[in-house]
């Protein structure tokens, strides 16, 4: 197909040129009705912020510009079919699970998943079995499902219908999961992959491969995270016939708005165009610029750049994880970076993560000066790493979601929570990976780890834990 085309963007421009009067929604009337103080900033986009009028096609029954844009998307990624999403990978994860699973199905799920995966499990009424990740001893970061957890799970739960994976993780860690996907297929499982952080994985080495090329059945991409797409723009790919395409279509339509943003969809069309037309020379320039920045960071004595471990995992070169060699937690360092005007993607107790753009246009010279400045007065307390045995290797929830939803809930002190069942997710924010999943039994070790993270400055997505408390189910009390 002709990847130099941008049908959605072109169609919007044509609409904007043709339209003399708007007698339809949205209420801003192409920017004419808008507060004066903001119109200068919003107007160029408001003229393109159309809705599904005659020429502009229909996201759920596309026959025009959206059909053409999605066909080009599918062609670029080499899928059976690919779709625009306007509510991020969040809605993609919900749709994947809803399409692939029936209520009551046993589903194997990587323990370090995003909260949207956990919400998908609950909404679909499936019976999850959580598989713990292995931990890289050098960095303390999770590196995908522990092979032993997988062996145990498939032996204990041969009736499982699907395997839900996250690849790469937030830090760009991408283990080789080709064999795992093959094994899951040989046991009859559909493989659903939250590849939110890997929409650029078609670039080729040193960028890790996409699971679309490893045979995953359904794959979600947050185009807005790594590609030049607008926030909330994402892709959902169907890569096999294992999950019926009608079910995927029905789930997308059920879960998404009936007024999808054309500005977001045009940006998705342009993001695909940007990637598909990136010449080998441009790609080399982008990587060279990135490598020079990484090499300069390595020369700063107070920090260490996390490296790939070829025997265990590849690393997305556009995610740079930095570890402090001196005293101080990642949270403290992040605060000092922000004081100098540098906003990282995230901090955890040990690291700060930078996400780089897919361009050779950004000069990192000034950033390097400020990074050095921010390291001048390291303070804060270093804390212990999350121990690998913090989570059980392979565990189902004690109660199905249908029973949990009927149990009364009480908020108690964190220190008194061991032995209870968590009635909420406890997710350090960022990176959005749960320390406790709703429905899990709370262990003393987990309580201690959460308390330690809190002391180190972590903020949790649930308010109660920020106040040293947690909501628990009163199971059988
Ligand atoms: C691994 C992972 N999956 C899914 C999501 C949700 O993506 P989105 O923000 O596009 O809804 C995130 C967001 O941070 C994530 O890190």
Structure report:
There is one protein chain. The protein has 477 residues and is an alpha+beta fold. The chain folds into three domains: 7-276, Aspartate Aminotransferase, domain 2 (3-Layer(aba) Sandwich); 280-374, Aspartate Aminotransferase, domain 1 (Alpha-Beta Complex), CATH 3.90.1150; 397-473, Molybdopterin biosynthesis moea protein, domain 2 (Alpha-Beta Complex), CATH 3.90.105.10. Helices cover 35% and strands 17% of the residues. The chain contains 16 helices and 21 strands. It has helices at 7-18, 36-46, 65-77, 88-100, 115-124, 147-156, 178-186, 223-226, 245-255, 262-276, 280-298, 330-339, 365-374, 401-404, 444-455, 463-466, and strands at residues 81-85, 106-110, 127-131, 133-135, 142-145, 162-166, 173-175, 190-194, 218-221, 234-238, 303-305, 313-315, 319-324, 346-347, 351-355, 394-396, 409-413, 421-422, 428-429, 459-460, 469-473. Strand 2, helix 5 (115-124) and strand 3 (127-131) form a beta-alpha-beta unit. Helix 3 (65-77) packs parallel to helix 10 (262-276). The radius of gyration is 23 Å and the shape is globular. The mean pLDDT is 92. The chain binds pyridoxal-5'-phosphate.
